[in-house]
Amino acid sequence: QAHILFKPTLDQQKKNSELDETLLNGDFVVRYDVKREATAGDIQIVNGYFVHYFAPQEMPVFPKNVIFVIDRSGSMTGRKIEQTRDALLKILQDLRPEDHFTFITFNNKVVEWKSSLLPATEENVASAAALVETLTARGGTPTTSAYKASQFLRLVSDEWERKPVTGQTERSVSMIILLTDGQPTSGE
User: Fold this and answer.
1) What are phi and psi of 84, to 5 degrees?
2) Under a CB-based contact definition with an 8 Å cutoff, are residues 93 and 156 in contact?
3) Can you spell out the DSSP letters for 127-183?
4) Count of other CB atoms within 10 angstroms of residue 69
């Protein structure tokens, strides 16, 4: 059963002299969806881009150890760095106190935020959010050969070895979140 209520304004009801003797003109389109369980996740579509949020039901939530690798090169100027900052701020809000995180930013230089993974306390998340707010895009991203790329990934993966996580359990999940446009701006 569905109830559709259409209440056009006076301007919508005005007659258009180029049309027939109708009081309303144009198509009346009704879009609807059926009520269903939200087990398939949520999809958000904006300006031709989409994101699919999906989280399985009834699964335990494991603590996360996250290294954010953030491109801050010149090709990220404008909307790209804004979207990166917005995404990071949202992700930081979603971290739980048992999660641990740090940042590595790169352009023609690689910069580590902290020397160890930090627990996602209110204080650490606020400090990280302050850093994210200051992220700017400048510098180059050299076109990397396979060798240089492997060195960079080695640096990131070595973080797990060099940065012990206090309170880390066997059931924690380690991940790398790479935020980049993938555009080299200098080099071969």
Assistant:
1) -65, -45
2) no
3) HHHHHHHH----S--EEPPHHHHHHHHHHHHHHHHHS--TT--TT-EEEEEEE----
4) 19
Sorted by where each begins, the domain ranges of the chain are: 64-182
Per the document, the length of the chain is 188
Which residue in the block uniquely carries the two structure tokens 């009346």?
28
Measured distance CA(188)–CA(125) in Å, rounded: 38
Q: What would be the CATH architecture of the domain defined by 64-182?
A: 3-Layer(aba) Sandwich (3.40)
* Cα radius of gyration (the chain): 24
Phi (first) and psi of residue 161, to 5 degrees: -80, -45
CA atoms within 13 A on the CB side of 26: 10
- Give the model confidence (pLDDT) of 66-121 as tens digits: 888 888 888 889 999 999 999 999 999 999 999 999 888 888 887 888 877 899 99
- Give the pLDDT of residue 157: 58
Residue type, 56: P
